[in-house]
Design brief:
The protein has three domains: about 1-140, Immunoglobulin-like (Sandwich), CATH 2.60.40; about 145-150 and about 160-240, Immunoglobulin-like; about 245-430, SGNH hydrolase (Rossmann fold), CATH 3.40.50. The longest helix has 17 residues, at about 325-340. Helix 3 runs parallel beside helix 5 (about 325-340) and helix 5 packs parallel to helix 7 (about 370-380). It is built from eight helices and 21 strands. It is about 15% helix and about 25% strand.
Amino acid sequence: MKHILLSALLLAALPTAAMAETDLGSVLMDNAISYENTGAQKAEDPLLLLSWPENAESVRYEVEIFKGLPEHLDRNAPLKESVYHDRHIYMNRILVRLPPVMDGTPLYWRVRPINADWEGLAPFSAPMEVRSTMRLISRNAPYPKGGGRGNGAFLLYPVYSYTGNPGASSYEVEVTKEYPENIDDARPSKYRVWSEVTTLSNVYDEQPRLGTYYWRVRGIGSDGEPVGVWSLPEKIRNQAAVHFDIGIFGDSITQGGGHLYHSPSDLAYSYVSYLDFPAVNLGRSGDTTEMMEKRFDRDVLPFHVKQLLIMGGINDLRMGADPEKVIKHLKRIQEKCRAHGITPILMTILPINPENIEKYYGEKTNENWREAVDTVNAFIRGEEHIDTAAPFAAFPVMPTELAMDGLHGDWNAKQMIAGEINREMGRFSS
């Protein structure tokens, strides 16, 4: 994976709605945005898409648009006066609506990554002219992030991500069983099978999606009325008939995401994307081992995998569950596998960082979590297993540099997990 520092920023190739871009759950796109020095915005003013290379270490981005090129431009501090300024951007692109500047002065823009403490991770990029780097968007709708490609892109439980459109204070995501019949308005489709309203820029589907579905998103104003129309539908094609020999079964650590605001749709934060072999990602955020056991028949069996990598238990143990209960559910998952000709391969549980979990999620961790993890890992190491916790054995808690939120590994931790799996998987070849 390439990690591109925005201190040497070049404009990324402008994406289409079907191409993968980055996002993680975010607060509203329009939060804390200021517009100055232009005429009033009008609904007929065009939408502009600006995008830039992802910085995998960023938590959010800061973008400003300004008139002309200041004589002395400080790359480490925002301008005192700008046409547009926003520090609440959680993906590597924005949709903005800018009216013409009255005196005809060219507009420029720049961007920098910022961390969880709102500090710059790198200087602002060199200024770029808006006119030569923008993409005009004629459709007044959120801009979907299309499905990724490559290993790990298949998610049994999809995550729908998008860039919000100006004027929206919330968003509705709709999933349909057929291509929607009404692509140019904001009414629900007659083919709707699921929907959810959120103030965030991504939605986690509550249901597994097998077969062919479509999803789209619309903006909603503070008055509850639609802002523009639905985005054009994105196709989801999750076919159980597609042959995977190996399945990956687990919770949010398996489903993907991390570094606070990167979602499973960002494959840099999926350890499945770094594997040397094809695999189907059957992870679901928030699962306990009991929940994994209960959904096994529905979510695993349709894929007819030969081997199942299983990582679960941390959600149980950090909340104080008895480790023997976790072991009981893992044993039952093993039994289900063997009853259907599947080889179960358990994976050891990684350490966590209770201080960071409380800092970012406000959740207390059971004080005996470490002993509980050791108990479950001792059981796992006596079974057919891969010791995914081994690369982290020297750490009493998960370092912030490897998991900012204390629970979900960042891109570097996900690479370490995948590296251990890649080294050991050959032992289980049939």
